[in-house]
Design brief:
The complex is a heterodimer of chains A (340) and B (166). Among the domains of chain A are: 97-143; 209-286, Thrombin, subunit H, CATH 2.40.10.350. In chain A, 39% of the residues lie in helices and 21% in strands. Chain A has helices at 2-13, 18-30, 33-61, 63-70, 72-95, 99-137, 322-330, and strands at residues 147-153, 163-166, 179-181, 186-193, 198-202, 209-214, 220-225, 232-238, 248-251, 263-272, 278-285, 294-298. In chain A, helix 1 packs antiparallel against helix 2. The longest helix of chain A is centred in the middle third of the chain and has 39 residues, at 99-137. The termini of chain B are close together. The longest helix of chain B is centred in the C-terminal third of the chain and has 30 residues, at 136-165. In chain B, 75% of the residues lie in helices and 0% in strands. Classes of the chains: A alpha+beta (340), B mainly alpha (166).
Chain lengths: 340, 166
Amino acid sequence: MSPLIATHYCYALVPLRLTRTAMALPQKESTPIFSDATAGTLRLIAYLALAAVLMVLDHRNGWLHRVRYATSAAIVPIYKLAAAPADWIHAAGTAFTQHGRLVDENRQLREALMLAEARLNRMHAVAQQNERLKHLLDTQQLLGMHAQLARLIDVQLGPTRDRVMLNVGADEGVHVGQTVIDSHGVMGQIIEILPHASVAMLVIDPDHALPVMATRTGLRGIAHGTGDSGRLLVPNLPLSSDVKPGDQLVTSGLGGRFPAGFPVGTVTGLERDPSGMFLQAIVKPAAELERSGEVLLLREQPDPVGPPAPAPQAGPPDSLAPTASAGGHAVPVAPAGGVR
Amino acid sequence: MNRLRTQGWVFWIGIVLALLLMLMPLPTLIQPLKPYWPALVLVYWSLESTDRVNVGLAFGVGIVADLLNGALLGDQALRLAVLVFIVLRFRSRLRFFPMWQQALALWLLLLNNHVLQALIRAFAGDSPMPALSWLAPAVGAAVWPFVFLLLDDLNTRVRGKGARAS
């Protein structure tokens, strides 16, 4: 508005300048401040609407995943590039680790190896015995666990670190729902796959829950993530339940998503839940969620024939329940609810 | 022409580096404090030159960022578009602020950005952001002077070289 008033002013008072202002006027009219700002605001509103539409469609139909899958040939190298500095720092760290620490570590590892060998020898005998029993039972099912090694690609997905990226994907036979473990316990499960990479949700993700069982008492519960990397929560335990700090929790296999018998964590504390009606157990995850560089993806075993295997505790004598006990003996870590 | 093209290179390399920095992990303890790099770079360039950054470009960068690490397609696109719109609207004032005032303004911008992010996450039904991440805008404001000086230095160098060459 103000340029217009100014021009009127010129018209009235300075006729000499009239021609010059009149010539300047058309130029000014094409770029007035007000309408430019309006156009900018309209453009912003258009973009906001577009973004909102995209978000709703994505939320409903999972577009992001599809676009990511389609463009993964371009995206995965970017992830690897972003992860490279962390890898270099790690490599440099190992290169410059002090000698003393290496010696210590070496000693510890040797001890662990001896222990493991001793245990292995014992297990060998047990395995042989097991083999004989299996033959006796005439089961065809193999005890062998099918697993696939994968490496973490160290990038940050989303605002928190509850999801990790692995370097194997659909082309390597990975599919959504596979269990991810490290040498200490359950880490999480695959939630998204790309052709040569996949995303796993860790057990500490607030959106994650997995069925667990205490090894000492057989008490069952559901372990929820808390978003805090050293803490899982098992809520809704009866006040009278027999659970105490130090109890080991393993996957119970209920629901069929996770195979039974893998360590999940150790109970570190108990508290009343906010309502005061139930106990909740605070659990420290067994897997080294912060440190694991290499992980295992469990392949699902062929579905067991017949009903899901019962818990591996002592059941009725074999003669009474031939089919069910066959499943129970053959696979102590069988996927309990293989049919899903 | 040559100068413009070199400046264009500096601009795009800056954007790509910001996206990579966004993906790069930090030690878990300080992870939530990580500043939102693409926003800082976009703010610098929208203050620096009028014709390079507009709301549409911010939207595009946001879409790419969403493809790389977003939980929802369009989330970062929306936030960056809003951010750049505000910066362009107050550009003439922000440019001549002293550095500390600029950093303060940036803190408010990033805080606004963070509130938007929290709202979008709440609407999408995702888990809430970690409490520590509310400090990230302050960290972003604290590193702003360094980002500004670094990019400004690069920019003037490129400009000087371009002027000599042409």
